[in-house]
Design goal:
By secondary structure, this protein is an alpha+beta fold. The chain has one domain. Helices cover 49% and strands 8% of the residues. It has six helices and four strands. A hairpin with a 5-residue loop joins strand 3 and strand 4. The longest helix is centred in the first third of the chain and has 28 residues. The protein is elongated, with a radius of gyration of 22 Å. The termini are far apart. The relative contact order is 0.15.
Length: 236
């Protein structure tokens, strides 16, 4: 009996540790039980910027930099440039909608429309604006990779890099339309764990499609004035 009591006494800290690990581990990393439930907390809360590593959260860095820009520093495009920008955005939005529907059939054709609009846009922007030219060239590269994707899995990956590059550029512009932005937070192998842009406010996750169509961790908006406004967070 003494040996049994001693054994129980020795094992009790280990048992307690395992119980705590099970309880807290499951509560933070459980897989969603339906496509409408994000594994994060279901109640949207405002983001506490003080607890975020902004060196890794480029979305919030851009928002901070944008807030410091002097009035009037937003780049205003010509009417011709706006037409090309709208064509590019329409093709990009169409790609996102098809990915959210788990469809791959029109990805290549829409990507080529996007690339054509980018080429036209690049031809009319200020060629001395080297930052703009560099962003457009990088965006074009990701668009080419998207157009040549051999499967929907690769399309989603290249779409993620394209989306991140577009956001780097669009937040500097006086936009002709309001754009709704989302961060999935779970998509592997892409910047921000899956940032994407939509023309509509309803969440339609292009990285997981029907598996987790409503999955997101952050929202934001690019207004027509191009001021980025932070939305809610769906994280715990």
């Amino acid at each position: 009996m003494r040996h049994l009591i001693r054994l129980i006494h020795m094992l009790s800290p280990i048992i307690i540790a395992l119980v705590f690990a099970f309880i807290f581990g499951c509560s933070h990393h459980s897989a969603p039980t339906s496509s409408n439930i994000h594994p994060a907390h279901p109640i949207s809360v405002k983001i506490d910027l003080t607890n975020l590593d902004q060196s890794e959260n480029t979305l919030l860095i851009r928002q901070s930099e944008r807030a410091k820009m002097p009035t009037g520093s937003t780049l205003v495009l010509s009417d011709e440039s706006i037409k090309y920008l709208q064509n590019m955005l329409e093709a990009y939005f169409a790609v996102g909608r098809r990915l959210a529907e788990d469809k791959y059939d029109t990805i290549t054709s829409q990507s080529r429309i996007l690339l054509s609009a980018l080429d036209q846009l690049k031809s009319v922007v200020n060629q001395e604006d080297l930052d703009m030219i560099q962003i457009l060239e990088r965006t074009h590269q990701y668009g080419q990779q998207l157009a040549s994707s051999s499967s929907i899995q690769y399309a989603r990956k290249h779409y993620g890099f394209l989306s991140h590059s577009l956001l780097d550029w669009l937040h500097k512009l006086a936009l002709p339309v309001k754009i709704y932005g989302f961060v999935c937070g779970m998509a592997p192998h892409v910047p921000q764990k899956g940032v994407w842009l939509q023309s509509a406010a309803e969440v339609r996750n292009p990285y997981f499609g029907s598996t987790m169509l409503k999955c997101y961790s952050q929202t934001f908006k690019l207004e027509t004035s191009s001021l980025m406004t932070q939305g809610g967070s769906n994280d715990q």
